[in-house]
């Protein structure tokens, strides 16, 4: 199984693609390899890695980073979260236990420029529930 398929199986992707298409900004040219870019963003947030640490299978790291930042500023992640939360009521009931989460020593400062903090949190929640929206085979 490829790394991209470990983030989004074909079944899961068929559920997520229409949701992402609905909320993503429409530009002059449609994005190339949207599944690869979204997989890279979710992989990064599932693993807590830096953008530069993205495996080459996800393409150039800067494409995923640039898309994440641009979509954060446009509110795309918030809209996607609202859509997903509407589809899966349990997604809104996610709690994190602070005893297991260690803050980086630089976490005590003020917010960074760019305003991606809430988008980071939202994408981590979405990434944690990638498979939850896929239909279950019985």
From TrEMBL:
Pfam families associated with the record: DUF4096
The Insertion element IS402-like domain, residue ranges: 10-81
InterPro entries according to UniProt: IS402-like_dom (IPR025161), Transposase_6_like (IPR052909)
PANTHER family registered for this protein in UniProt: BLL5188 PROTEIN, TIS1421-TRANSPOSASE PROTEIN A
Protein's UniProt name: Transposase
């Amino acid at each position: 199984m490829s790394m991209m398929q470990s983030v989004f199986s074909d079944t899961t992707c068929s559920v997520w693609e229409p949701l992402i298409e609905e909320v993503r900004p429409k530009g002059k040219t449609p994005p190339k390899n949207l599944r690869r870019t979204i997989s890279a963003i979710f992989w990064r947030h599932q693993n807590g890695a830096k953008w530069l640490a993205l495996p080459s299978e996800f393409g150039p790291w800067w494409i995923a980073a640039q898309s994440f930042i641009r979509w954060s500023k446009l509110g795309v992640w918030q809209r996607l979260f609202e859509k997903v939360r509407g589809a899966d009521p349990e997604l809104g009931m996610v709690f994190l236990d602070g005893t297991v989460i260690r803050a980086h020593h630089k976490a005590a400062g003020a917010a960074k420029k760019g305003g991606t903090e809430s988008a980071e949190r939202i994408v981590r929640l979405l990434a944690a529930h990638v498979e939850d929206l896929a239909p279950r085979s019985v």
